[in-house]
Structures are given as C-alpha cells and as structure tokens.
Amino acid sequence: MYLTGLVAVMVGCTYAAVPLYRTFCQATGYGGTVQRREVRSFFLGLPISLFISREIVVQFNADVADGMPWKFIPTQREVRVKPGESALAFYTAENRSSAPITGVSTYNVTPMKAAVYFNKIQCFCFEEQRLLPGEQVDMPVFFYIDPEFETDPKMDGINNIILSYTFFRIPDQ
C-alpha cells in the first residue's frame, strides 16, 4: 500500500516538474529567466519615476533557429526606461516560406544578474505563433524594471540590458 502511494506521488511529481520549474524560474529570475509580476508604477500616489533618476537602456535582439524561414526583427533597437516605469516594445515576424509555419520563442536577459529585476507583464514567449505564407505580425512585449534595481549595489555600473528572443520551428504534427 505504501509503495503504491509512493509510486503515485512520484508520477505526480514527474508531471508537475516542468510547470513548477517554470514558475520557480519566473519567480526568482534563475538562469536569466525574466520574472513575471504585476506592475506597480505609483508610490504614495505619485509616479515612481519622480523618485528615480537613473535611466536604463533596454536593447532588443531577435534571432531565428536554423531552418526557420522567418524574418524576425525588433521594431525598435532600444528603449530608455527608469526603474519602475513600464514600457512597450514590438517585434515583427514574417513567414517567408510558401507554407504555414508554427513557431515558439524563448527569451533571455543579459546580463543575467539583471534578469531578477526585469519583469514582463505581457509577451509572446512560449506561445505558439502560426503564420501563413507571407504573413507578417507585430508582437508586443510589455515590461518594467523593478525599482529595487536602483538600490542594489550589484547593479552599479549596469546601464544596459539586452532582451533577446529566438524563434524555433515547431514540427508539423
């Protein structure tokens, strides 16, 4: 009876491992994973940007994996934000093949120690994107840098952050 229960718990843990690991990475910023949080842009009823003077340059990078016939580029090269301010950026993807293709993107933040403070509110990562032949779409990324970035001594000298996405082709079923 105990062994059957142990096997059932182990099987349950196996199925829960991937979502739990993803949640852990998003909560801690482990491995350059961007944290997901709700944006708080006011302190004492005033915009946080009134209390923060440091400006961070967020640069955008876009890549496609080998064999992926898409053109994938950031709409803008960089955005300047103060910690606590939310920002909206766009990436453009175009299917340059003659067949529909489904892709999924992953992301990374550089330097890795800044990923803890980079918070996505909304993005297209880990969601399947299906583009018809010749179709082009704009995909938004809504984010902010945690105000604690400003006071962390480990972030001294870090004024640039790179948000990088890579699209991978999902094989047709």
TrEMBL record:
The keyword tRNA processing does not apply. Signal peptide: none annotated. It is a single-pass membrane protein. InterPro entries: CtaG/Cox11_dom_sf, Cyt_c_oxidase_assmbl_CtaG. One of its GO terms (cellular component) is mitochondrial inner membrane. One of its GO terms (molecular function) is copper ion binding. HAMAP family: CtaG. PANTHER family: CYTOCHROME C OXIDASE ASSEMBLY PROTEIN COX11, MITOCHONDRIAL-RELATED, CYTOCHROME C OXIDASE ASSEMBLY PROTEIN COX11-RELATED. Exerts its effect at some terminal stage of cytochrome c oxidase synthesis, probably by being involved in the insertion of the copper B into subunit I. This is Uncharacterized protein. The lineage of its organism: Eukaryota, Viridiplantae, Streptophyta, Embryophyta, Tracheophyta.
